[in-house]
Design brief:
Blueprint: H1 3-22, H2 27-46, H3 50-84, H4 86-97, H5 101-120, H6 124-136, H7 140-150, H8 152-155, H9 158-173, H10 176-184, H11 189-207, H12 211-223, H13 230-233, H14 236-257, H15 262-279, H16 329-348, H17 350-358, E1 361-364, E2 374-377, H18 382-396, H19 401-439, H20 444-456, H21 460-475, H22 478-496, H23 500-514, H24 519-527, H25 535-564
Antiparallel strand pairs: 1-2
Helix pairs in contact: 1-2, 1-20, 1-25, 2-19, 3-6, 3-18, 3-19, 3-24, 4-16, 5-6, 5-7, 5-9, 5-12, 5-14, 5-15, 5-16, 6-7, 7-12, 7-24, 7-25, 9-11, 9-22, 11-14, 11-23, 14-15, 16-17, 16-18, 19-24, 20-21, 20-22, 21-22, 21-23, 21-25, 22-23, 23-25
GO cellular component, one term: plasma membrane
Main location: membrane
Pfam families: Lactate_perm
Amino acid sequence: MALTDIAVAITPLAIIAYLMVGRFWPATRAMPVAWLVAIVAGYAGWNMSPTWIGAATVNGFITAASILWIVFGAILLLYTLKRTGAFDAINQGFASISDDRRVQVVLLVFLMGSFIEGAAGFGTPAAIVGPLLVGLGFPPLAAVVVALTGNLMAITFGAVGTPLIIGMIDIFGDVEVISSAVAAQGMTVEGWVADIAVWAASFHVVVGAVLPFIGVAMMTRFFGEERSIKPALEVLPLTLFAWASFAVPYWATAYFLGPEFPGLMGAMVGLFVTVGALKAGFFHPDDEWDFGDQSSWPDHWVGEIQPGESADREAGVAADGGVVRTMSLWKAWTPYALVAALLVVTRVVDPVTAFLQSTLVLQWGSIFGTSLSGSLAVLYLPGAVFVAVHLLTIPIHGMSKAEVVGAWSETIEKVTPAVVALLFAVATVQIMLQSGTATGTDGMLIVLSDAMANLAGGVYPFFASLVGALGAFLAGSNTVSDILFGTFQYGVADQIGFPRTIILGAQAVGGAIGNLIAVHNVVAALAVVGLVGEEGRVIRYELIPLAYYATATGVLTLLFGYVLFPGTF
């Protein structure tokens, strides 16, 4: 492998890291530059034809359109609920459990976010939970940082098991070397991937024991007046209880039922048990913790959306044009309950799923005569659920025509800045992904992974989760990461004599880790709270939980494979 190939392959990633993390460039500026660099790398370094580069770019745009559809729906529902006063009622509802921001992070980010991730995936939790935290009074930047962190354990099984079902079962079944080796062990590919799911859940249960605490600690350290993790230590018993309430049903579901429902079941049981304990008077901190006065917040903490509801309300008319309503808690939560229910139904009920996946699907096959094709399943993507719930909310909350028009207008205004960033981010990824397909050689990502394996040798398993994280960082998807690197990780494990099942469990965990800093997810999360342009700053924060999770997973991978369970297939 030539060093020049490695240098060329890493250039687009290096440009993204330098411009966004080093120079604080917004993704709207950095991503078009990275796309141009990827074009040069593909054309000059990989001999990709202009046709293939164009096809990869178009395919990336189609994928970006899917993400934008989700973001649009999430923002539309956000502004709908802000205009109807639902956020006021929701604020009061959480205040009835606890006004403490630390407690709210545990409930909303770790538990509710995990439920949404288990049902929908696609970065949906941050798009829902982030705005909800802002509505409760969180600084928007703090809301994004903690919202991206908290649902990590559920991402591996996001969207009802899609990462493992599509990313591994479907792929491995078509690879003769893998399917034959699995059959020789007396297993089916489906049964083997179910084992991989258990190993992935096992990694998460051990490493994720401090995940709720990390979310709270990042909030108090970077956004509290005292800039310390000491306030987080005061709720350590609550974070551990919430983790245990989630982890037990989570692991048991992976073991007994397979990869579809660990995130959903863990979050549902965890919410019920943790809320019950709090209402019974357990685990409340002695002193209530809150952010400092908003006048002391740095400018970059708040963008176009102000925390909490506007206080400028007179004569029954809100400052944003909405009508002030007295709303019950159940009515305020009804739209989100409908979102959760519809997401589960559309992913679990097979006839419904099949109908939505085959109806109103925009397709472009053989793009520019290549083997690439793209599609946009308008009704199946979560964006359709958000829009449907928005339409249902109009009569449920009694919205006026002016309120509906206002919600749509503000949504279009807020989505627009994210369009450029997402289009060029995904196009850059697609050029890198397709560089090998276009030329019949190892693509840029495979070259980078091979270089890492050759460099690491027998300690490569320590880095297996980081390889998975690389795929998710680029593609913004655990599923795509498993597709990209699952077969590769199998091959490396086979070469070095390491248990394949364990290393693929680490791959599945790595795909979740990479979502912390995936540009798509960061841009989407910032867009829904009106902070597009702070991507580099958010990524810097997220490198902290990423470093912990990757290091701990790497150590466990070595321990499991070489010491505790070396005989595993």
